[in-house]
Amino acid sequence: MHVVVLAEFAAPSGGAEKVALESARGLAELGIAVSYLQGVSGPVDPLLDHPRIRRIDLGLPDIWTRGAVAGAVSGVWHRVAAERVGAALAALPPIDILHLHQWTRSLSPSVFPVLFATGMPVLVTLHDYFLACPNGVYYRFDRAEPCALRPMSAACLVAPCDARSRLHKLVRVARTAILGRTLGSHPLHLVHVCDASRTRMASLFGGGVVHHRLDNPVRVHPVAPAEPERGDAVVYLGRLTREKGADLVAAAARAAGLPALFIGAGPLEAELRAAGAEVLGWQSPDAARAILRARARALAAPSRWFETGPLTVYEALADGIPVVASERSGASEKVRNGETGFVVAPEAEALAGVFSRLRDDACVAALGRAAHARFWSAPATIASHARAAADLYAHIMVSGRGPADCALQHARAENSAPV
Question: pTM for the whole thing?
Fold first, then answer.
């Protein structure tokens, strides 16, 4: 089997690239040939240093580094990206699977016709909602609440929901409209990283689309669980924004009488520091993990938006650290409420209530032990993810190139699965 993985970067710049890198490495270690196409030149993660991984740098610009006009034009349709992807694919040995992880920073909708033209199955992992929603997160930044509008409806088009400006929203609407026409009725396999994403997106695509479910991998190894009862703070790890709930953690921790510790950076950094919170800034993955193991009584992930699957939640559970997750987040599906952590509404009062329970050492210790035991009873490691991905690829290949056949067989497989 030869799998082509397409991503915008060859080093982690976010969750999508992290998953793409770990998936590529896991597949290679299973003996599968992998070609990794990176859109933007830059650092290369050591995970790609493997004899069965071929890396191809497309040398495209990151549209975030271009001027407003050039960035808008190439974001909507990047002709050069399509040409370079096409040339790279033509030079490769026979391809069995094309798996796209991210496309908004350099590739644009222009690459989809190139992928479809190969005649091979095309998969897209939905790390966000850009395939349907113009602003990508189903969130009203103007109202600080999840969006209830149907993407690209008349109400959606006029809603001032973008985090930047109405003009930026207009560019993204144009991109989404062109993407919709580009996808048309072409066969497409959408890979969801949480059940909520699959439910939310299922009604938005036509008969050419088949939906699949595949957990994200977690780059962890079995170690003794942390001792969160010895920790001194509720820890938040990620970008410091309102949509991700950083301000909620600070307010709830104050109300509960617990320190709040923030690892990350973002627009709320000054506000959090002014309120007396400890903000450490971005840390390396190893340093962040060490801080969590030493200081976290729990990891808080109270996203206001419909976050698909923050990897930090899975990593904390693997280390035996309780998680307080938003009920809107896909990660809440991995938290057993009251057993391995808490699932709550992303509201300061609700968070303060469960944070107060984290003052009890015995409660925290029990949650942490259960979190560790439950994660490692069915670990979502790189190896297990790769096996599941390889099984999915083989299933799609055996089912035929068209999604109609695949959908029928996939439904039969799901219906016959043990419960």
Answer: 0.92
